[in-house]
Design a protein that fits this description.
Length: 76
């Protein structure tokens, strides 16, 4: 995100609320303006990458467990 000039702390916000409503510091105006963070055109590619990375992590974990379950250990 920093490469694209975006603040990485944005990913810590609630993806189901708009960025404007979460970054608004005024307590009197709690209106949710704009699309949800995960559907915001400015940030949608980061959420797609995050989803892809979690899928890769799962696939690697699954493959690692598969290898361990099929490995035979013999004592000499």
């Amino acid at each position: 995100m920093t490469r694209d000039g975006e603040d990485p702390s944005i990913m810590d916000l609630d993806p189901d609320k708009s960025v404007a409503s979460q970054l608004n510091n005024k307590e009197e105006e709690l209106v949710d303006k704009g699309p949800p963070l995960k559907e915001d055109p400015k940030y949608v590619k980061f959420f797609k990458m995050l989803k892809m990375v979690s899928g890769i992590k799962y696939a690697l974990y699954d493959e690692y467990n598969s290898i361990l379950s099929h490995t035979c250990f013999f004592s000499l």
